[in-house]
Each structure stands twice: as structure tokens, then as C-alpha cells.
Design a protein that fits this description.
Rossmann fold; binds adenosine-5'-triphosphate; alpha/beta; 392 residues; 6-stranded mixed beta sheet; binds magnesium ion; elongated; 21% strand; 41% helix
């Protein structure tokens, strides 16, 4: 019965010029989400709402799933459109809607009206009262409860009228593209896809960088990261995924530096390279899936040493989360199953038995001096051979 959806968004902080940016970004992302489902849709802005109208057959559940992934949407309301909003027609059509949805269930209800078209002859409070009366007259199974009704029958009047009573919770957050772009360091693990999702939820577009170390990491490991990026891109897409060949840098560090400092030094080079790629791609921040104390390279002291090579802010949205809390989000956004596939990671291939857990910045910097001869050339080479995969 539904051929259209009204999307509500939170209006906090979107006054004046911001409003257009916010609404346009939201509209774009709704279109992107709907490009993933069967059917064609018209998406428009309507006085504080985004309006989606189907122009062909579609699968209701599939559309709801897609719309639930759009950041900035507070609620999704499947609506019935009433073309002729003249009062007598409106009451009958709203009545038909209530009959169709609730049949002869005993329910308490309340009418909520919103008049987008201020020329409409009846003001909102009166619409509520009169429509309530009409429904009570027509149906014996309805009772009014203005404080805690089971069903709120929303009637919105513009050029046309809309009736809905089902309000499905949306993703929340801010529309993608309203808050700049950041570079996600995306590994095949559980944490980094979640980190990317969380920052994107605040309206930040993301690019991603993956450090690949063939033949120590396989094509399957790379494919796993592509699959994770695809899943994250359902929310945050499209995403440009930059694949960096990290093998020579890793081998060189392995040859020259103390093995207990390997992971830290490797991570410092990852951050440096990701930052250069970020600058090239108009990103103004880095994102990682680090969480304090999770592993040796994520103690407070280790984070000091990785932060020291970054001039850009590093966002670590899961920094205070326990693993289980991160897992819950990974399950919710559909990345968990892929993340736990047992393919090798470039960090685990070269990991030391007893990595330092409290590295001092001085000692790490001193060890890195041993790389002086060749490291700049290797980094340059890695940057020159980046493969960018567009995920959309
Ligand atoms: P898990 O998600 O299983 O905890 P992890 O990869 O997140 O694994 P670490 O290896 O300590 O754990 O890495 C910390 C962070 O560094 C990651 O969240 C990710 O942002 C980044 N990172 C690690 N390895 C890579 C890689 N190969 N490519 C890109 N980023 C990486
Ligand atoms: Mg981790």
C-alpha cells in the first residue's frame, strides 16, 4: 500500500545557509542508498522533510533497510499520499488508511497534524480535533488517548496531503559530506571498519588506506579488506580505497631495527604514509581503530610514539571501548563476519615475541635513524605504486 516515504531529520544546528547544505547532502545520500535497491525513486526536499516517492515496483523491506543506513535520518515514515487535500476527501482517505492498517483492532489513538501549506483553511489544532472526531464516528474500535496513545495518526498537509502512523527509527548522526573528509586506516580486523563507520556517522566522508604486504599477505587478505570497505560504504560510500604495497618497507625495518620495536616503527610509517595520502586526497584527519591497552602498540606510551609523526588530528572513536562493545557494533553494521575470517595481516606476519609495551619516543626515534639510507626512497616508491579502488 505504501509508495512513498517521509524522512524526518533532526533540525538542530541547521539554520540558515547550513540548512541547504544539510538537506542537499541528505538528499544525495538517500539517492546513493536507494541506488543499491531494485526500483526507481524520486527524492525531493519538502519543508523540513525529505520525500521519497517510488516510480516503480519495489521491495518494501529492502527500501527500509537501505534508508536505515542513511546518516542524518532521524525517522523513516512510510506514507500514503492523498493527492486531493480538500477536507471531505482528506477525512475519508485518512479513515481508509486507518481501516487498512489497523482493521478492527482495539486501539487508542491521537491525530497529529502539520500544516506545511499555511494557506490551508483549517489550522493544525482544528485538523487534529476534527479528524479525531471523524475517526471516532467511523470506527467503534478506536478510542482517543491524547497523552499515551498506541497509535499516532500523522496528517501532513502541503500541496498534497500525507498520512502515516508507522515511525521507524533512522540511523541518526549527520548527513555524509557535511563535515569534511578523513582517511581511515583500514585493516582486516574488527576495529577499524567500526571506527570508520562511527566517524562517517558524524557526516565525515571517508577514504581508506590499506597496507598490503605480498606475498606475506595474500590476495584473499586484500579481498577481505575490499569486502569490508564495501560493507562500510553501504553507510559511508562511495569510498576510495588506497592499497599501499608495504612489503619492502616492512622488510627493511625488519632488517635494520630492534625486533621488539618493529610494530611501533611499522605503525609510525603507516601513519606517515596515510597522512601523505590524506593530504593528496583532501582529507583533514586520520581515523584508526585503536583502543587503549588492546595490544602492545596501543598502550598510552605507544600511542604517544605513533601520534608524534602525525601533524593531522588522529580520530580514534573506539579508544575507550572494550572489545565486546566494538564487536556489538561490528555485528550491527554487518562487518563482523568478514572481519573474523582468518587471513593473515601484515602486522602479525612480522610481529615480535615480546614487543615493547612502554616505548620511549627517544629510543624509537634513535632506532629509526638506522633506516636513514633507504627509507625515503622506499616510502616514495610505495606512494608511487598505490592502487586506488573505487568502492561504490
Ligand atoms: P583488530 O581489529 O583485530 O584489533 P587491528 O588491525 O585493529 O586488529 P592493530 O593491528 O593494532 O589492530 O592496528 C591498529 C589500527 O591500525 C587499526 O585499527 C587500523 O586502523 C590500523 N591498521 C593496522 N594494520 C593496518 C593495515 N594493514 N592497513 C591499514 N591500517 C592498519
Ligand atoms: Mg585493533
Amino acid at each position: 500500500m505504501y509508495k512513498a516515504f517521509l524522512l524526518r531529520y533532526s533540525e538542530i544546528g541547521i539554520k540558515g545557509k547550513n540548512r541547504y547544505m544539510f538537506e542537499d547532502a541528505l538528499k544525495n545520500q538517500v539517492k546513493f542508498a536507494l541506488s543499491k535497491v531494485e526500483g526507481s525513486f524520486n527524492v525531493s526536499k519538502e519543508q523540513g522533510r525529505i520525500f521519497v516517492e517510488a516510480e516503480s515496483e519495489f521491495d518494501f523491506d529492502e527500501v527500509i533497510t537501505a534508508l536505515k543506513r542513511v546518516f542524518g535520518v532521524a525517522a523513516i515514515c512510510p506514507v500514503v499520499v492523498i493527492d486531493d487535500n480538500a477536507w471531505d476527501n482528506l477525512t475519508v482517505k485518512v479513515g481508509d488508511y486507518v481501516e487498512k492498517v489497523y482493521g478492527n483492532q482495539e486501539i487508542t489513538f491521537k491525530v497529529e497534524a502539520r500544516r506545511g501549506n499555511k494557506n490551508y483553511p483549517i489550522p493544525s489544532p482544528e485538523i487534529c480535533a476534527k479528524m479525531g472526531e471523524y475517526l471516532l464516528d467511523r470506527f467503534d474500535n478506536l478510542k482517543v488517548d491524547v497523552h499515551n496513545p498506541k497509535v499516532r495518526v500523522h496528517v501532513e498537509i502541503r500541496t498534497k496531503a500525507y498520512v502515516y502512523s508507522d515511525v521507524i527509527k533512522g540511523a541518526g548522526g549527520m548527513p555524509l559530506g557535511t563535515n569534511g573528509k578523513a582517511m581511515l586506516l583500514l585493516s582486516g580486523g574488527i576495529d577499524s571498519p567500526v571506527a570508520g563507520y562511527m566517524i562517517a556517522k558524524r557526516g565525515v566522508r571517508i577514504d581508506a588506506t590499506y597496507f598490503h604486504a605480498p606475498p606475506y599477505t595474500s590476495d584473499r587478505a586484500k579481498q577481505k579488506v575490499v569486502d569490508l570497505a564495501k560493507q562500510v560504504s553501504l553507510y559511508a560510500g562511495p569510498i576510495d580505497l588506497h592499497v599501499v604495497n608495504f612489503t619492502d618497507i616492512q622488510m627493511y625495518i625488519y632488517d635494520k631495527c630492534p625486533h621488539d620495536e618493529l610494530t611501533i616503527i611499522m605503525r609510525r610509517y603507516m601513519m606517515r604514509i596515510a597522512q601523505t595520502l590524506a593530504e593528496k586526497n583532501n582529507c583533514i584527519g586520520l581515523i584508526t581503530g585503536e583502543s587503549i591497552g588492546q595490544v602492545a602498540s596501543q598502550t598510552m606510551q605507544s600511542l604517544v610514539t605513533t601520534d608524534a609523526v602525525c601533524t593531522m588530528p588522529v580520530y580514534r572513536p573506539v579508544i575507550g571501548f572494550d572489545k565486546q562493545e566494538i564487536v556489538e557494533i561490528a555485528e550491527k553494521i554487518g562487518t563482523f563476519e568478514t572481519s573474523i575470517l582468518p587471513y593473515e595481516d601484515c602486522c602479525t606476519t612480522f610481529v615480535a615475541k615480546h614487543p615493547v609495551t612502554k616505548p620511549s619516543l627517544k629510543s624509537i626515534e634513535k632506532s629509526e635513524l638506522k633506516l636513514a639510507e633507504d627509507i625515503d626512497r622506499l616510502v616514495e616508491e610505495a606512494l608511487k605504486t598505490v592502487e586506488t579502488i573505487v568502492i561504490k
